[in-house]
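The records we work with from here on pair a chain with its fold. Each token is a code from a learned vocabulary of local backbone shapes. A record is reproduced here so that you can trace the correspondence yourselves:

_____
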Amino acid sequence: MSKIDDILQRHAQRQPIEDRPESDGYDAYKVTPGFPQMAFSLVHRDGSEDVIEYHNASHFRFRPASYGGDEFLSFVYDRKIAVTITGKELRPLLHAIKEHTLISLYEKRPEDAVMNDGPVVSQIMMTDVSDAAGKMN
């Protein structure tokens, strides 16, 4: 089987991507293993969504939890938006971002039941820092 046939066969086996995964509980993220993406979505608890293009995201930082608190994953988007994600067990999200396989990241809603020990996104914060950068120059 040629490499192209192999790729086409793997794409044919992919499941359709839903807006919000239906499961027995909360899932913090959705990935496409082996299929790098062009962008990923940050889905906020109110249903609003921001799309982050991988090629415009930079300066990724992961900070592990200290004293039982939240972990932090932060980055800059398009040189003007600071994005901070807080939660638990966020390292798999960082790896999915590094591999460009993250497709959706879901902020936990109050009604979402956490059924496993996997990642939990407590909060997604986005701050426009373009004005602050301009004032520093």
Q: What stands out?
A: The first helix runs from residue 3 to 12. The chain has a mean pLDDT of 84. Helices lie at 3-12, 91-98, 130-136.
